[in-house]
């Protein structure tokens, strides 16, 4: 286990295609951005210089600052300082939990600096992000808590730095557009726990939808587009976007609902071997490796062991685990490694018992996701728009003959005894949806 | 998915060591066994012959028989017969659910023939096993339901055959020793859904504890001992033993409790890649393979990707998945492939936050297992005796210095700055237990 730490400081450039576009067109946006960056750099330099030379004196100086490493060390007798004294005896409140019910209360939050925005030299806004939630915090000069120097310190914070903020929750009259939480935090104290180096991609760029880029483009502004290679080369930053936070959390929930449903239906979870002597099933390519002088394969499916479990009287089993398929296939339907959700059950009388379980399983997953992952689904839809899933509480069942007949009626030529190809499957899906 | 089907008919012999012992010593037990087997074979032959030639006629003949394959097929218009008519409109009751509250009710159960025992030619006992539960059923000649021929049919059933039994639940005055359920089923109808071939090992032999074998040995009786090779060669039969059914169900529950606890503590479940470009961490050997012309490794741990998730702002993550370590190690602490339960979390102030979570996690797992897996723990303990786990609601915490001091006080020489070796770790465990 490890403590929270800074991501490796990857020095890769944003991929050239998006940069060249922005270089060509940019104008206003780019100039604005460059100006902002110059400001930040100057402020950072000034802040660093001031930290070394003319540190503020007096009681207000204790309300902000960088937390030195010694103070953060987990030792029995850590060096105390202004941060330890400020957070001592307090619990952190999750940014996502900040709402009107906490009005006028003092809270301690920890998160990343999502953006900062100075308004003159007496006021600075900083949006703090924790996972899928953001909150607007403001530092405004006050004789008893916030000095001019502290506002300058807040303005100098680099994006993605981790900060601890102590402040009072207030509820503004107008809707807050730049953050998920509809409250503000009036900063009393702010400490930087870990100052981030300049990141190779910004969360703002990585969170942009195609629609936004195209809309801006029509208005003559070229916004940076972060391509997949760049994302994968800077994965730890890319997965901080709200859409990715959502995707991983939805995935986690799918696994959870899948398991809870099956356990409630008397299934047993098994973990089958992934290193096996022969290929699991025909029809898909296999990765081979040397297992201490013997030839071994990576399992293409838990099929054999699931069936062994049924013959071994487990009755109903399931597995969630990696599946390996060495195919030279470049369709969107293929991955060399994926996480399989596998189910196997004995039937008492008729295979429709399996259809009943699977039917109910999927409806349960869809229902639960709509309930527990509302926020996450919205976060994903914002960057990658999708239509809400349509499904019936009781799934429509077609026999193969009925499906073939529907395709024939729609003018698709089809072999009534053969498998459906991808195109026919899609067409059939469409026809069923229209029904 | 597949339907319940017979295990492959492995014709391996029970391993020779145990057989040679039993040949030498056996006497009474072996003779009894051989006689029993001869009886079964004779009855099976007689039954097969009668099935072909003089099938019983009249209404009672509909109350038993082998279910022909056509009748079991999942088609829209299956061939009807006496079995389909008998089970039509009925639901199966789990053997484990049979108890006194069902007294005098008619139930339909499905399970394997665990043992049969004839008492004259008008009465036969058959113990039916479903997963970890067994129930004693009896067929006794009655003018309105059970014929002599039916009793003969019940006696002829080979062990491990799958049967459907319709009968009335009764509660005997005396304790039932040969089955888990304290009720009997008075058979009215019995159909054999799938007749098992002779199995290479019997569940009875595979379920025997070392203590039973030794006890019998002292009394001059050599009972067969099923060695590990034989078990692994006949895995689908071996995992039908109550101990193995228990082990797999406990394992399933451990995973479930692990996940439920962590999800409730705001952890996100992740699935990290198992095929990676380099080794995950130093210090353990790695399996290498060819990934489409590039060199790849099997992950020795999800370490890197867990840490990436933390840097990527997931905050708290866990994974349950396979881990591969290619070490040439033959200790009981090493497996080349195992299922890892992995946890990674950010800390706010002190590493004791991790200890708090892990502490509570283990106590929750132990508590829950004692609650929900009572039956399974008993089943395992019967074959492989173990002492009940001792643990405190709040785990004892020792600093490294305190541990070293305890060992020193007990006279163990130890390097106060080095790692503890296996022996010292064991000794320390002992000392803590004694405390």
UniProtKB/TrEMBL annotation, chains A, B:
Its EC number is 6.1.1.12. The keyword Ion transport does not apply. One of its GO terms (molecular function) is RNA binding. Residues 1-52 are annotated as: Disordered. This is aspartate--tRNA ligase. Residues 1-12, 27-43 have a biased composition (Basic and acidic residues). Gene3D superfamilies: Bira Bifunctional Protein, Domain 2, Nucleic acid-binding proteins. GO terms for biological process: aspartyl-tRNA aminoacylation. It holds the Pfam family tRNA-synt_2. It comes from the Eukaryota. It is found in: Cytoplasm. It catalyses: tRNA(Asp) + L-aspartate + ATP = L-aspartyl-tRNA(Asp) + AMP + diphosphate. It is an enzyme of class 6 (ligase). One of its GO terms (cellular component) is cytosol. Belongs to the class-II aminoacyl-tRNA synthetase family. Type 2 subfamily. Residues 248-435 form the Aminoacyl-transfer RNA synthetases class-II family profile domain. Keywords: Aminoacyl-tRNA synthetase, ATP-binding, Cytoplasm, Ligase, Nucleotide-binding, Protein biosynthesis.
């Amino acid at each position: 286990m490890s403590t929270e730490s800074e991501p490796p400081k990857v020095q890769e450039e944003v991929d050239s295609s998006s940069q060249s576009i922005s270089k060509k067109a940019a104008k206003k946006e780019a100039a604005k951005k460059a100006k902002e960056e110059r400001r930040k750099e100057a402020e950072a330099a000034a802040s660093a210089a001031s930290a070394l030379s003319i540190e503020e004196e007096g009681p207000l100086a204790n309300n902000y600052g960088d937390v030195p490493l010694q103070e953060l060390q987990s030792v029995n007798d850590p060096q105390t300082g202004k941060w330890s004294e400020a957070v001592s005896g307090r619990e952190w409140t999750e940014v996502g939990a900040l709402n009107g019910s906490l009005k006028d209360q003092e809270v301690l939050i920890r998160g990343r600096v999502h953006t900062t925005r100075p308004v003159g030299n007496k006021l600075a806004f900083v949006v703090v992000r924790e996972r899928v939630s953001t909150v607007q915090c403001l530092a405004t000069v006050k004789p008893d808590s916030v000095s001019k120097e502290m506002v300058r310190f807040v303005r100098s914070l680099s994006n993605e730095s981790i900060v601890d903020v102590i402040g009072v929750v207030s509820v503004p009259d107008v809707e807050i557009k730049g953050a998920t939480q509809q409250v503000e935090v009036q900063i009393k104290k702010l400490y930087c726990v870990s100052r981030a180096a300049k990141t190779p991609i910004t969360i703002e760029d990585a969170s942009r939808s195609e629609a936004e880029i195209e809309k801006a483009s029509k208005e003559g502004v070229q916004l940076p587009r972060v391509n997949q290679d760049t994302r994968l080369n800077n994965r730890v930053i890319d997965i901080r976007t709200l859409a990715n936070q959502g995707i991983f959390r939805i995935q986690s929930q799918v696994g959870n609902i899948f398991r809870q449903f099956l356990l409630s239906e008397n299934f047993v979870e098994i973990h089958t071997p992934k290193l096996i002597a022969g290929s699991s099933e025909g029809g898909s390519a296999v990765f081979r490796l040397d297992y201490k002088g013997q030839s071994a394969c990576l399992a293409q499916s838990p099929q054999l062991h699931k069936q062994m479990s049924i013959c071994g009287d487990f009755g109903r089993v399931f597995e969630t685990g990696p599946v390996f398929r060495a195919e030279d296939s470049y369709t969107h339907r293929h991955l060399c490694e994926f996480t399989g959700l596998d189910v196997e059950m004995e039937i008492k009388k008729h295979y429709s018992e399996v259809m009943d379980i699977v039917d109910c399983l999927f409806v349960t997953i869809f229902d639960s996701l709509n309930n527990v992952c509302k926020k996450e689904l919205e976060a994903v839809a914002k960057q990658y728009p999708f239509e809400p899933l349509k499904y019936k509480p009781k799934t429509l069942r077609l026999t193969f003959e009925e499906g073939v007949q529907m395709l024939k009626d729609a003018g698709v030529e089809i072999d009534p005894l053969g498998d459906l190809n991808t195109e026919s499957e899609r067409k059939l899906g469409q026809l069923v949806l229209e029904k």
